[in-house]
Structures are given as structure tokens and as C-alpha cells.
Amino acid sequence: MSDGDSRLPACQARAIATLWRSLANRRLTTLWRLARMIGPLVERFSTRERTVTRINLAEAYPSRSDAERGRLARQSLTHSAATMLELGFAWMGDPERVEGSIIEVHGRELLDEARAEGRGVIVLAPHFGNWEVLNFWLSGHFPFTAMYEPPKLAGLDPIIRQGRERRGARLVPTNPRGVAALLKALKRSEAVGILPDQVPSWGSGVFAPFFGRPAYTATLLPKLVARTEARVVTGVALRLPGRGYALHFLAADERVYDPDEAVSAAGVNACVESTIALDPVQYQWEYKRYRKTPEEAEGKPGWKRFRLY
After folding, report:
1. What is the pTM of this model?
2. Is the distance from CB of 59 to CB of 308 less than 8 angstroms?
């Protein structure tokens, strides 16, 4: 790699960090206006995001018209732009302002009851709304541990870590040492956070239906439940555009407690579907949730033709 090439990621990291800092204390109404301007540009000029979003929406809502799914795609990309613009607010904004932006909290009793019973709580936090605001609130109200994988731009790592840990959250690596830390936290009747909709590496998941199509889904959850008897709750920070957020904590699908990993994974995906139903446009549809296929796993000839993207 040339000196110029090696400097490029550092410059990109500085530019992004500068943007976050400049937006950290902006009003949410301003950030939403910016998102409404940026979203249509993303849809028009970012082929990858537009294509993946539309494919995923077609899989999730096959009965809806092309025009309706197109509208959902445009709105979804606007919300994704809003999330990116709000990262500075969530990580660097005045803590009192961030706390004050959380206008409603629904289902907190699910967390309180579990801890009163001496049980840990596993919070499934899909890529919906602003999950960083959810992290902010959880880490300020409960002992909270979450897995963390450093970003590709190494220069952003200290900023993200400081932002996520500033209210007391403990970040642990995405490896066996991190899993051990989650187990210890749950046995102390604390809360831990898991991203339920990321595609895991081969050998760390099973295929389970997500909107009716097989999606490779992590099997960490049943392992944690089996060893700790923790309660599972789905949590999201629903965006109230320009005003703030409404936190929703929902009881998990009962299948998540099944010792069979495939059954538990189906329950996890059902939990994600339930949160998406709160407002489908706030889900991050541009993520390639179906990029691994059963045909690929089985090594079938021509498995690539089964891929959506």
C-alpha cells in the first residue's frame, strides 16, 4: 500500500468524526430535515443501497404493489440517513439532551420484573430506528454489557467506544472471551445486548425463516439462555421524526427459549419481524440479510443462482 493509500482511511475517519461533532448539538428537527434531503439522493445515486432495499422489501411484502414498495424504500433510506446523522447526537451530544429526547418508554416493566426475580435480561436490538439511542438509555438505567466489533476505519474506534461507554456500558469482543463476559453479566442479573439480525460466520448459525425465506441466523441466544435462564426482550428506539424517540420493549416470542437452535432462531427472527411491524420504514432494509443460502451451505452446484444479491 502506498503512503497515499494508507493516509486515505485516516482522512476519511477524520472527516466522519468532524461531521459527527458538528452535528452533535444540532436540533433533531434540523437533522431530520437534512435526512429528508439526503435520503432521495441515496436512493437515486447509491445503486447498492437502492437495489438491496427493494429486493428485501419485495421478499418481506410480496403482496404490496411496486409503487407502495418504492415508497417504503424511499422512506427507509431517509430513516437510514437520519440514523447516520444522529450518531453524533447519540455519542457526543449533551447527555441531558439525549435523555430528554426519549419521550416515551413502553414495556420497561419487562426488564424490571426480570431483575427483581434475580434473572438477567437479554435485549435483542435489531437495526431499527436509532439503536444507539437505545444503547444510551439502557446503559444509563441498568448494568449493561454488549458485544462490539471495531469499525473498518480504525480512526473511528476510540470515538465509537467512548460514545457507547460514556453512560457505563461495557463493551466486549465478538469472540469466546466476549461470550464468557455476557454469561457472567447475566449470572449477575444484569442486561446484555445482542444484535439479532446480523449474518454470522459459517458455523455460528442455522437457517431460520425471516419473512418466509431462509436467513442464516446466529445461535448465540439459545446458548446464553440455556446456561443462565435469562429473560429475553426485544428493544428498539422508534424515531418520532424531528421530536425524539419512543422506546419499546416487547416480550420475546416463546420459541427463543427452546433448546433446539433452529426453533430458537425462528423465534429470534419472529421477534425482529414484530418490531419491524411497529413502523416498517424504520428498519435498515439495505443490509444483505439473505446473502448466505442453504444451497451454498450444502455445497450444491450452481448455488449462486439462489442468491438474491
Report:
1. 0.94
2. yes
